[in-house]
């Protein structure tokens, strides 16, 4: 959430940010509630101070004076109770409104209404050409028996799947490849040097985060998906919809020393989404599912280095996809397509020959201190000041989607799948799936 003083002092900027993000929030009404809250709180504080002063006099007062003072305290207690009763619903309304005010986007983010208004920054490589009509991943996987959706539907319901055979080994090959690269300081430094970035070359620390998150924590970091969430009945906890949901609050209620920043984590987990409201959209295959595996990058940095940290995340994403030699385009996400916490966002869309178009496979989100304010994650500067940590999260690989990109771009005329060269050492130097 935003700092209340920032909102009070930057009303026009906050209004414009909400407009750009198409968030229906009345900032003037919020400020009215904010004034009401402060007025009641001020009266309450003054009454409590008065109560404390009178209470101190009681122990030294004479008997008849003491009775008068005790009677006054009783009256003040009733007034305090009234102010507390008045304040409670106002605070609830204030908090609800505050949590709905979005992080104003950066000035460079293109303005738009939907993903149709996202801006292509650049393309890498040309769409794969074939001497035959390419199949989509559904036909390829059925032919090679690489997944089973029908049996998964009987066991778990729609939009679940069994991965099988070499497709499982291919996923684990990508996992090993990713962790080998992003935990290597030399690789990170080469990416930084190539992109002329002004950031530290610290490698990522591997992490296996929890896949269950408390409701209040998920709410505090603005990662609540409503009817998209798998809720655990009766215990106020949810299954995570992405690995960063439990990675972002890792330093909740803590203050780090600036000297340890940036801190970078590489987390692997299964994610769960209801996919409510998407009936008929990507129903076939494994592109859009209710559960999927994902490797996510999560970084914690200072306020001054957060923007450069996002540039590094995007550069790493491009490096990973280039290593797989898959054509893609880098997209600057527009204000109407980005999330409420995002200050800036970029997506990578990989070429999918089976669909004859680019599809989103990676996203990179810079949230500034919007997430950490609610979970009280701080760092102490060299001069002793306490500031909120800045967070970035970015996809390393969302497996179903990157597996589709590999299957469709590397398919051969005989129906086999060529394994990307960088992944072969993790698959006993095997060159083809289905050969």
How is this structure best described in words?
The protein is an alpha+beta fold and 435 residues long. It has 2 domains: 4-100, Serine-tRNA synthetase, tRNA binding domain (Helix Hairpins), CATH 1.10.287.40; 115-433, Bira Bifunctional Protein, Domain 2 (BirA Bifunctional Protein, domain 2), CATH 3.30.930.10. It has 13 helices and 18 strands. The chain has helices at 4-9, 11-20, 27-58, 63-100, 137-144, 149-156, 165-182, 185-195, 215-220, 244-247, 306-323, 372-375, 399-409; strands spanning 119-124, 147-148, 162-163, 205-207, 212-214, 231-232, 237-239, 254-257, 263-272, 291-301, 328-332, 344-352, 357-366, 377-380, 386-388, 390-398, 417-418, 432-433. The strands form 5 sheets. The chain has an 8-stranded mixed β-sheet. A 3-stranded antiparallel β-sheet has the order 5-7-6. Strands 8-14-15 form a 3-stranded mixed β-sheet. A hairpin with a 4-residue loop joins strand 6 and strand 7 (237-239). Helix 3 runs antiparallel to helix 4 and helix 8 crosses helix 11. The chain is elongated and about 105 Å long. The mean pLDDT is 95.
List the helices and strands and how they pair.
Elements: H1 4-9, H2 11-20, H3 27-58, H4 63-100, E1 119-124, H5 137-144, E2 147-148, H6 149-156, E3 162-163, H7 165-182, H8 185-195, E4 205-207, E5 212-214, H9 215-220, E6 231-232, E7 237-239, H10 244-247, E8 254-257, E9 263-272, E10 291-301, H11 306-323, E11 328-332, E12 344-352, E13 357-366, H12 372-375, E14 377-380, E15 386-388, E16 390-398, H13 399-409, E17 417-418, E18 432-433
Helix pairs in contact: 3-4, 8-11
